[in-house]
Design a protein that fits this description.
This protein has about 300 residues and is mainly beta. The protein has one helix at about 5-10, and strands spanning about 15-25, 30-35, 45-60, 60-65, 70-75, 85-90, 95-100, 105-110, 120-125, 135, 145-150, 165-170, 175-180, 185-190, 195, 205-210, 215-220, 235, 240-245, 250, 255-265, 270, 275, 280-285, 290. It folds into three domains: about 15-55, no CATH class; about 60-125, Sandwich (Immunoglobulin-like); about 135-290, Glucose Permease (Domain IIA), CATH 2.70.70. The strands form seven sheets. Strands 11, 12, 14, 16, 17, 18, 21, 22 and 25 form a nine-stranded antiparallel sheet that branches. A three-stranded antiparallel sheet has the order 2-1-3. It comes from Colwellia demingiae.
């Protein structure tokens, strides 16, 4: 199960944070609870500091430059991945789509007048990229068996294009998550501490995304607050630790929501993929399967 945390990505935003306090304790069944309220009955607990988002700041900057014959509107991309931007020209009324390189700038349009503020659509990645059918190692290093609780086309929450080919893997809070393939970290969010199943939590899930050589990126959602080991722009190798698992955002319990994402033309979608185990066996993930962590090369 995965909250629509990519909505934050598609808005092109990161957050400035402010601190608060939360409580950590075990319930009657011995499961860890993270809450902004202390336990109702008298028992041992610890307090943790957490951060909550405040003012968003855009990762896409649009700006006009005046030349001899008019103005050129540019877009500057602060992401560590190419992005595709689509918009309707305020002058010709034609729809324009441009790919902006990672950490680069691209001219969007030229006009005699200064371009007004634009409403635009955004997707991470280059739509011309082609997935290379890579076989992915397990996204965790624990040798303990972990059950897949929801697979491709899962009826609970894997029903739209962004989640259709995702898998949910149940695991204890705090399990180390590892890179399934080498790449560049393009997104890190680990500032949220709670979970729930109402619409309020849809954009709250913490997560990490890693861009790969074929232009796809692996997505790890619901990570535990303040456990990200990597930062945006970091290069990671297969098996490198990324963060610890949790249950942040839209979630019914501790698990990892994992998927492979690509840009299908101004739209990020999940694509089918296969895992490979430590014995070299290749398999398509299915509900109720037990997965064992990957050995780091």
């Amino acid at each position: 199960m995965k909250g629509l945390w990519l909505l934050l990505l598609l808005a092109g935003c990161f957050t400035i944070c402010q601190a608060g306090q939360m409580y950590k304790y075990k319930d009657a069944n011995g499961n860890w609870v993270f809450s902004d309220k202390p336990p109702e009955k008298e028992q041992d607990f610890s307090t943790l500091q957490y951060t909550s988002p405040t003012k968003p700041t855009s990762k896409i900057k649009l700006y006009n430059i005046k030349g001899k014959h008019g103005y050129t509107l540019y877009a500057k991309n602060a992401f560590f991945t190419p992005i595709e931007v689509g918009f309707t020209s305020p002058f010709s009324q034609k729809f324009i789509s441009k790919v902006i390189p990672a950490r680069g700038s691209t001219a969007l349009l030229e006009s005699k007048k200064k371009a007004p503020k634009l409403n635009y659509r955004l997707a991470l990645g280059d739509p011309k990229s082609v997935a290379d059918n890579y076989q992915y190692h397990a996204p965790f290093g624990s040798l303990k068996g972990h059950r897949i609780t929801q697979g491709f086309n899962g009826k609970f929450s894997h029903t739209n294009d962004y989640n259709k080919y995702a898998v949910d893997i149940a695991m204890d809070v705090g399990t180390y998550l590892t890179a399934v393939r080498a790449g560049t970290v393009i997104w890190v969010k680990d500032d949220y501490h709670m979970s729930g199943t109402t619409s309020y939590f849809l954009d709250k899930a913490n997560g990490i995304q890693v861009l790969h050589d074929d232009g796809t990126f692996s997505s790890y959602a619901h990570i535990l607050m303040d456990t990200a080991i990597v930062k945006e722009g970091d290069k990671v190798a297969l098996g490198d630790k990324l963060a610890r698992s949790g249950s942040s955002g839209f979630s019914t319990g501790p698990h990892l929501h994992f998927s492979i994402i690509k840009n299908a033309g101004l739209k990020n979608i999940a694509i089918p993929f296969k895992f490979v185990d430590n014995k070299g066996m290749v398999f398509t993930p299915q509900r109720a399967m037990i997965m064992v962590g990957a050995n780091k090369p």
